[in-house]
Amino acid sequence: MGAVFTGIVEELGEVVAIEEFPGAARLTVRGPLVTAGAAKGDSIAVNGVCLTVTDFADGTFSADVTGETLSRSSLGSLATGSPVNVERPMRLDGRLGGHMVQGHVDGTGTIVERRPGDVVRVSLPAPLSRYVVEKGSIAIDGISLTISALGTGPGPGTHWIEVSLIPETLARTTLGRKQPGEPVNLEVDMIAKYVERLLEAGGRQR
Q: What is the pTM of this model?
């Protein structure tokens, strides 16, 4: 399965450098906590995207990002100085405080609205709508959150979800700062995808 994360952000990091290459990029992120004890080849989730550490020094780490990842996630919109959510993989002897997150982005959404009570509405790509349920889990920019509401509209084919943020999430993650119009990475609950796959396989065998 590879690295597994919990969606509990350990640290609010900062992009300190971006090197662009044809069809790829290299990110350097400041994150003293997640780089403590880091080694080349380790996995670290950046805004919910599992990246492999290629170098580290003085509280920063670097990771290469492929063109596919740039096109399928919001990492391509980062700039020097951008805050990012960072998390190391879950330890086998650790507690699962959020839900199982793979760091494989299923799509991107957009912050649609922020309402009093720290309610955030996020647009959802139509193909992902079948994987979300009210009170179910979703990772937004790598943050494990519970869906408080979902719906469609106002335009045809438009889907959205809402999450309610606690003060800790607002203070420790990018969702405390992001405004309407900004993109976010989305990863739906992997259990929903596995169930769908099993049902499809069962239907073909009949």
A: 0.90
